[in-house]
Amino acid sequence: MRVVLVAGTTETAKIPGISAAGADPSLVGHTPSADAEIIEYGEPVRSPVTPVSPTGCPTPAAVTRAVKQLTGFDVLTVDAGLAKPSAAPTIDVGARPGRDIRESEPVPTAPGAFEAARRMGLALPEDELVIGETVPGGTTTALAVFRALGEEFPVSSSLPDNPTSLKEEVVAEAFEASDVEPGFAAHKPRRAARYLGDPVLPVVAGLTVGALENGIDVTLGGGTQLLAAAALARHAGADGDLTLATTSYLAEDVPELADAADAFDLELTVTDPGFETHPLDRYDAGEAKEGAGMGGALMLADRMGVLDDVEAATLDVLSTLDPEAVETGPAAADAGGADAGGADADIDDGP
Amino acid sequence: MRVVLVAGTTETAKIPGISAAGADPSLVGHTPSADAEIIEYGEPVRSPVTPVSPTGCPTPAAVTRAVKQLTGFDVLTVDAGLAKPSAAPTIDVGARPGRDIRESEPVPTAPGAFEAARRMGLALPEDELVIGETVPGGTTTALAVFRALGEEFPVSSSLPDNPTSLKEEVVAEAFEASDVEPGFAAHKPRRAARYLGDPVLPVVAGLTVGALENGIDVTLGGGTQLLAAAALARHAGADGDLTLATTSYLAEDVPELADAADAFDLELTVTDPGFETHPLDRYDAGEAKEGAGMGGALMLADRMGVLDDVEAATLDVLSTLDPEAVETGPAAADAGGADAGGADADIDDGP
């Protein structure tokens, strides 16, 4: 059993008002890298931020980490277009950061990454995968992908008040920029992702298609973005049992969820972590709702009989994070890269 | 507690007679990628080979995997110049595959990778690290690095008969190609690695230096290559307690080991896994000896009281491997990369 975190970015997140996945818009590019680090290590390592919403709601990655500590599941992080270095180990499927969907071809890497992810799904020696995502701005690209496929389902938001009309406006501009009509990509999932999506959706869909072909039990752990990934997988012709595991917060926000799950032949599992303590009470106030595999992790916690321990374990994770800190220690920023050498005398001279 | 596998390649391994880390020389480039997959998943995933020596001795990665299953340690694989795609998640420190040391500057990425690895060591939130390596040809580059630092210690070999005079010949050519003399890089570890080493050694050394600065307990799990990395770390000025944990097979092969450990102020731990059953009896016949963190893993197994279970657990890992298979399923070869897309109609057309 392994939880896969598909982590990437889209410039769409920088449109003001679109995403709550960062204390301010300049930091959302770091959120997926930091989320992956929190799940792997329990805290940010290379990333200079601890992701919180503008009002201080902690990232759902802390919940996923807490469940990892409680249950011991294995993790696999897929680089689906990370924009910033992460200290979390990742696999490469050829994805690159996505551009704003109001450009004509925001995700040129979508077809290749879909295929590479499908092959990973075909090759992984696992009985069961739970696949989650972290990509700020991802509900807007999910909405565009639904429309590209000719599907009418709505999407949720990490903000308490879903900026629905702003999203519709962005999506309309996206269709205009790519000079296509809603439904143009029905049964053409890679085209939908390439012209209207983000780099995470085709990777989730490709992994799902490959894993199902491979006989692996697949649960998509998340909200309407994972629903869009399921739609892509079904439009790619994947059959086989598929579960969508989400949080009660997300399910309350999207009354159409059960119908949508039916439409894509998904078993729906909704788990309520019962958060009451500050700052987790912000979830109960409708913030964040999902992300970083939280719904899938909660399903596993429930199955393994530790759901009641998740709140305390999450508070424990949060106690080692510092949501106020925007800068961390000497490893902050881009510790990777061949040019990272210091000024020591033994570097720059010849032999 | 985390085991770090520093995995990379050097073209030096392609010199006939240098390395036993692959059934034949054309496959050694896959060995580090496959070793990382075996530790992470229990079997090769993207890699088309299961690493065995030409005589069928299985890779020490199977032993490290067995101990992971017995003890549950966390793993971090560092890409220190992998030449082939791996399905094991990795972190990037800017390393690239090393060229043959008989070229003038085989590892231009050494200084930057050393520094990036040092920053990782400074940032990792761990109490203890056990660092191992997988790099075919690595004892030859280790020998060259010893000489570059002005140190006289000998190196071991994955072959039962150490091709010592071939290695000395290659090292002499390497010094000639870089136009330097033994000892030229004393106290200049990055220069030693850049002009005479492989990409793995500076990453192990950088991680060690950073982790020691960070107050992390560091054990180098391996043989004379890890001894060379310790020499680099000491020549970089690192003090602090440092342990070298190796196998009884390696220690028997290198009588000078205790003196060398003394010289670099290393505590030496030697663990005998007591292998008797085929094909693990090949270790007792002097093959492989070390690698992929085996000595460090055995130390952990001993500490946690499961050393007696390692042989059976390793045979269990080997039972799911197929040492005869040179090709695996549809995920073989380069599943990664943006051009991996198939010929489906929805890929290549415009929108």
From TrEMBL, chains A, B:
InterPro entries linked to this entry: Nict_dMeBzImd_PRibTrfase, Nict_dMeBzImd_PRibTrfase_arc, Nict_dMeBzImd_PRibTrfase_sf
Q: Where is the segment annotated Disordered?
A: 89-109, 325-351
Q: Where is the composition biased (Low complexity)?
A: 329-344
GO molecular function terms listed in the Swiss-Prot or TrEMBL record: nicotinate-nucleotide-dimethylbenzimidazole phosphoribosyltransferase activity
Q: Which SUPFAM superfamilies match?
A: Nicotinate mononucleotide:5,6-dimethylbenzimidazole phosphoribosyltransferase (CobT)
Output the Gene3D superfamilies linked to this UniProt entry.
Answer: 3.40.50.10210
**Family the UniProt entry places it in:** Belongs to the UPF0284 family.
**The protein, known as:** UPF0284 protein C438_14871
